[in-house]
Automatic annotation (TrEMBL):
Residue ranges annotated for the EngA-type G domain, each copy included: 3-163
Family: Belongs to the TRAFAC class TrmE-Era-EngA-EngB-Septin-like GTPase superfamily. EngA (Der) GTPase family.
Assembly: Associates with the 50S ribosomal subunit.
Domain of life: Bacteria
Protein's recorded name: GTPase Der
Positions of GTP 1 binding: 9-16, 56-60, 119-122
Taxon lineage: Bacteria, Pseudomonadati, Pseudomonadota, Alphaproteobacteria, Sphingomonadales
Species whose genome carries this gene: Sphingomonas arvum
Function recorded in the entry: GTPase that plays an essential role in the late steps of ribosome biogenesis.
Membrane-spanning intervals of the chain: none
Gene that encodes it: der
């Protein structure tokens, strides 16, 4: 069995977009509206020559966007606990939000192996968002663009020690 990567993060940061890119099939719904991805999805991911199992944690975004909602939290926690590494995404354009901090606090408390990636980092906002994400205390953030396929080598280098 391959090692497992759980993609976690608050709604709309691009988890399903990254999942689709890693898995290479359109298995996860992606939509501009928050709340579209309903189910947890798993697939066989590939990044350069790394092969792994990927879990895309769904949002349940409809429950309560103001705090980490119950079902989303449960699903995130379950995925992280069975994964070899959590790939924690934040959104470079939004910067670090209170919900990002809540997730980061939980990941640190769990002592979960984490790679933190700042998505939507294409263009000038990328580096600003990446620097802001150091404040989450989860190591050096990498800048990626799931939509545009940027940051592949950095993502590869960050995941490789866990796989
Ligand atoms: P999820 O809720 O975390 O699964 O997020 P989605 O994958 O559904 O993406 C939410 C929105 O962000 C969609 O409109 C995506 O097209 C968009 N998105 C995802 N990745 C990127 C990216 O790298 N750059 C930009 N600009 N938008 C992105
Ligand atoms: Mg999704």
């Amino acid at each position: 069995p391959h090692p497992t990567v759980a993609i976690v993060g608050r709604p709309n940061v691009g988890k399903s977009t990254l999942f689709n890119r890693l898995v290479g099939k359109r298995l996860a719904l992606v939509d501009d509206r928050p709340g579209v991805t309903r189910d947890r999805r798993e697939g066989d991911g590939k990044l350069l020559d790394l092969e792994f199992r990927v879990i895309d944690t769904a949002g349940f975004e409809d429950e309560d966007p103001a705090s980490l909602p119950g079902r989303m939290r449960q699903q995130t926690e379950a995925a992280v606990r069975e994964a070899d590494v959590a790939l924690f995404l934040i959104d470079a354009r939004e910067g670090v939000t209170p919900l990002d901090e809540e997730i980061a606090n939980w990941l640190r408390a769990e002592d979960a192996p984490v790679v933190i990636a700042v998505n939507k980092a294409e263009g000038r906002q990328g580096e600003t968002g990446r620097l802001e994400a150091f404040s989450l205390g989860l190591g050096e953030p990498i800048a990626i663009s799931a939509e545009h396929g940027e940051g592949v080598v950095d993502l590869f280098e960050s995941l490789r020690p866990f796989i």
